[in-house]
Amino acid sequence: MKDKATKSNGKKPIFKKWWFWIIIVVILAAIFGNTGAKNGVEDGAKDAISSTEQQTEEKQETETKSDTLPTLIDGGCRALTENFVEGAVGEEYSMFAYNVEEFELDENENGTIKILYLPSNAGEDGATKVNLTISLKDGAYKIEYAMLSGLYEVDLTQVSKEYTELITSD
Fold it and tell me: What HEC string does 39-59 produce?
């Protein structure tokens, strides 16, 4: 019996076992690894906030640009879009389906305007989504590019100038 007691008292302490140190290393790695990850997450969050702020500024800038489209130019683009939608496409025009996507005008108000005409029932009952690029030069509006329903480009040489060109007088 004395031998058994000596053996039980003669066991190595837990800190002298190899697996004990492996567990300690894993725990420390997890603790310090999470600290680095936390900093990485904080940096990522800061980057995401910065990116969101930048996108908000760009959106506000775009909205400001679209708000500054001169009324006369917008009126001419609407009229030409209406002519094209009703005459060439054969759909009933709705002013609520008209949207200026972007525009680029010089100091003389010459340039290009991109229009999206998207009726609420696009794709149903023959209504068609229309993308237009309209050029404006000295009061003359001309459709340079047209795409219907995102499926095919319109051959504008086959469309009457009555539906693709508009000249306004100031």
Answer: HHHHHHHHHHHHHHHHHHHHH
